[in-house]
Amino acid sequence: MTTEEIDVKIKQLQLVGDEGYQQQTFGPEILLPKEFNAICQSSHKPKHTKLHCRYNTTTTPFLRLAPFRMEELSLDPYIVAYYNVLSDQEITQLDRLTATLLKKTFAIGPDDDYDDNARTADGAWFPNNETPRTEENIQLIERIINLVSDLTGLQGDKADSFQAVRYGFGGHYTPHFDYLNMSIDQTAFYGDRLATVFFYLNTVKHGGATVFPSLNLKVPAEKGKVLFWYNLDGESFDFDENTEHGGCPVVDGIKLGLVSWINEYDQMFIKPNYRPRNQTY
Ligand SMILES: O=C(O)CCC(=O)C(=O)O
Ligand SMILES: [Fe+2]
After folding, report:
1. Does the model's ipTM exceed the 0.95 cut?
2. Beta-carbon-side half-sphere exposure of residue 128 (alpha carbons within 13 Å)
3. Contacting residues for 134 by C-beta, under 8 A, at least 6 apart
């Protein structure tokens, strides 16, 4: 697309940065927090920092055989990106499998799932009952579960902890925290969402980046990349407000992803849980 065409698309979206932002969308306008909107619309320039890119060979012993290219994006909160994680063939298989499952998604709220236009995307839990358990599919699911452990050093849920997402034109996820900080069945059984892993399944030419406004950090959506971050402080397990993040509106094409939220209680044999007693639930 030319610059003029992109401008036309952005105008079509009527993106409005709002000072007194409330989580709502009015009419055709997509109302977004001002800071977030500004970072989404800015051009991405990596900052000069002391952060490193390296091959990760240590998180699990398997990485000695198959290291991953890793880019440190922030040390506190800890945020890293991995490159070329899933092969094109695996991504095609995953896209084919999830394409028919995707339905409009809702955010989790205190009174059940609700629709507040904060996340305008189709999604599906994956694998779910409709996923054919062929040899090929079982292998792919196992591979993704193992990847999550290898990339994070944490224990993912062995059952079905992934959510496939597809954002269309204008699809976005307004800034939010992945931790729930609520007493609901999910947190009672699994604890809160300690960390998040997001697999980007395609490259979005314009829009669709993941943005952490408090850190002024913009992560472009690129095929094969995986973003991993801790939502809770790794030592104290306190909720880290600097992990607020969102998905920028997609300006050109679509954005496909796979999310894995890693729960606290699954880590009981890896990281003892030091959650202070004064926190809820
Ligand atoms: O789409 C993105 O870039 C972020 C998605 C996200 O934050 C989430 O699914 O919790
Ligand atoms: Fe999120």
Report:
1. yes
2. 15
3. none
Ligand nearest to the CA of 226: 1
Domain span including residue 65: 52-267
pLDDT digits (tens, 9 = 90+) for 153-204: 998 776 556 999 999 988 999 999 999 888 888 888 888 888 999 999 999 9
Report pLDDT digits (tens) over 242-264: 999 999 999 999 999 999 999 88
Angle, alpha carbons 217-251-117 (nearest 5°): 80
- In this structure, the residue with its CA closest to atom 1 of ligand 1 is 247
pLDDT value at position 272?
Answer: 62
Tokens of 189: 């059984």
Please give the pLDDT value at position 176.
Answer: 93
Q: Which residues pair with 230 in a beta bridge?
A: 195
3-state secondary structure of 184: coil
Ligand 1 closest atom vs CA 211: 3
CATH classification of the domain holding 224: 2.60.120.620
Please tell me the total count of domains within the chain. 1
Judge whether 17 lies within some domain. no
> Of 38, 34, 1, whose CA–CA distance to 169 is shortest?
1
Closest CA to 185 of 116, 126, 108: 108
Closest-CA residue, ligand 1 atom 2, reads 247
Omega into 127 within 30° of 0, i.e. cis?
A: yes
